[in-house]
Amino acid sequence: MSFAANLPLFSIVACLICAALSSLLREKAAAWVTRILALAVAAAAAAVLVLALKTGQTTTYRMGHYPHPWGNELRFGILEPLFSGVFALVLLACTVGGSRELVRDISRSKRSLYYVMCDLLLATLLALLYTNDVFTGYVFIEICTIASCGILMIRRIGRTTLAAVRYMIFSLIGSGLFLIGVVFLYAQTGHLLMPNLKAAIAEIWASGQSRTPLMIAICLMTLGLCIKSGLFPFHYWMPDTYGYATPCSSGILSGLVSKGYIFLLIKLILNVFGRDVFYASGIQNVLYLLGVVGMVVGSVSAMRENDIFRMVAFSSAAQIGYIYMGIGLSPELGILASLFHILTHAITKPLLFLSASGLVTASGGDKRFRALLGAAHRNPGAGFAFAVGSLSMIGLPLTMGFIAKYLFAFAAFRENLRLVPTLLALAVSTVLNAYYFTRTLIRIFNTRDLQPTAPVRLRSQPHFALAAALLIGANLSLGILAQPLITLLRKGLAMVL
Amino acid sequence: MLDSLWNNRIPAAAVLLFAVGFTTLLLHRNLLKKIIGLNIMDTAAYLFLASLGYIAGRKPPIITDGNTDPAAYANPLPAGLVLTGIVVSVSVTALMLALTLRLYRRYHTLDLDKIYMMARDEQEDET
């Protein structure tokens, strides 16, 4: 086994060690630990990706060399390192780009703890991506809940505590359902490792008997992850959570944490439930329906918001709808489109939160649209970044958003019955997206009654400039040269099956 | 019907307990009772899991008399899982209690609906 196969475990352990160390460090040192850690994790992910491309198959990494079915395992092909690399870089961009707001929002004594939570969050995201054991999945889901609640509640304003309580209640309901689902599955099959579970489930399904208990377990686990990732109608915690957290946390929570759960769900569908069982069960139709409704309802709610952060937060609900629509659509092309959209949203949403915060700060801290008239002239850098993010959300060509929508439509053309509803939902949602994002752009670039003030230069906000450059660069380059990424995702999907 | 219910009494009890905890966590307005609900819900899952490790007629999986034959002992894996799960639930409960304390200090009530109303009034005052 080559050395690179050790790297996923090493990255997870390194994150945990750094989290423990950072709690002893001062704020600046802790920040640098997180940044270097994120870069190191991304580099390790690249090495693992190269290994996967070279061997052309998934690698199973047994911890402590215990054979199945007793041991605990990590398993990775192309998708896992690809996503962990992107997630680590987005986390880096968030913590760097939001560092000025962190100083503003968090009291001095707590700031190093914020980075502890970021390190922990990275560890849990990596574990959710790499694990091959459903109970390990459950444990890291709970750690992820705690860490995300930490980065949310660390800003001490009354509403954030309330938002954190609401977020926790939804999250705990989700993980409770997931846990009881795992226990049911264990009771029926006697396994916790994904390959063993998959074989046992296929056997039960083929026998035709006791399908109902199996379906209940699968439903419970799927429902738990849907609640945690904020699928309609479980998205009502989103606007408060993303709207009141510090922008760096909003970016991480909306861009990464909810995506970690969705990736785990996709992994469960492919590696545990099995495509054939899952797509014969009818659950995918429910996911499809909720996804489609979520796309429209999320956008309508976003349209009615009067607060830029809450608008961007509601648009997240719509984007989660897209991802679930893809999962429900079809096992190959649909999931491919969803995977691409996960990356799109992970790269775009933090950019929107960070730039919206720049605009709000330049407008005296008022988040309402009234105060944001002409904000892009007061902070041109943030205005440009917000414009790029908005255009990607609408789905204009040259951005990743366009490719994602193209892939969804492409997947829909292979379906007979669901072709028209999917295209309609895409069209309606795109029009609504275009409406509220263009309206916002017109407001922030408005020149009427503009008070002559010196604009905030990019040079005075180097952290934001760096993060925005990274995210915009990734968005445009992957939007223009999407084919290599799509090929990678397709190869990765083929490898998993 | 009754027979199969009796044979599955442990899963049935676990599901019943889980449902009690779940509805309390979801619907109760009092934050402390929500936390109690959370614990009932998790405990239901752990009880079910612990019962899965029991094999009638076998000893607990601790070697005391030099007998290393696995057929003599019950399944130790679920106990390990339950322990891990308990640690998780303790930490989540602690976090929820801390949040509840913070809210109580600010709003002097544990009723979530009242807290929402007060928070909304505060926001209207600001605008």
Structure description:
- The complex is a heterodimer of chains A (497) and B (127).
- Helices cover 77% and strands 2% of the residues of chain A.
- By secondary structure, chain A is mainly alpha-helical.
- Chain A has 2 domains: 279 residues, no CATH class; 216 residues, no CATH class.
- Chain A is globular, with a radius of gyration of 22 Å.
- Chain A starts with 6 loop residues before the first helix and ends with a helix.
- Chain B is an all-alpha fold.
- Chain B has a single domain, classed as Helix Hairpins.
- In chain B, α3 packs antiparallel against α4.
- At the A-B interface, α6 and α7 of A face α2, α3, α4 and α5 of B.
Secondary structure tally, helices of chain B: 5
Distance between the termini of chain B: 61 Å
- Detail the poorly predicted runs of chain B: none
The averaged pLDDT of chain A comes out at: 91
Please state the CA-atom Rg of chain A, rounded to the nearest Å: 22 Å
Strand residues, percent of chain A:
under 5%
Quickly name the level 1 CATH class of chain B. Answer: Mainly Alpha
Q: Roughly what percent helix of chain B?
A: over 70%
Share in helix of chain A: over 70%
Instruction: Choose one word for the global shape of chain B.
Output: elongated
Spatial sequence of strands, sheet with the most strands of chain A: 1-2
Name the beta content range of chain B: under 5%
The number of distinct helices of chain A, counting runs of at least 4 residues, comes to 21
CATH architecture of chain B: Orthogonal Bundle
Q: SS-based structural class of chain B?
A: mainly alpha
Tally of structural domains of chain A: 2
Number of domains of chain B: 1
**SSE sequence of chain B, one letter per element:** HHHHH
Subunit organisation of the chains: heterodimer
Q: Biggest sheet of chain A, open or closed, and with what strands and sense?
A: 2 strands, antiparallel
Structural class of chain A comes to: mainly alpha
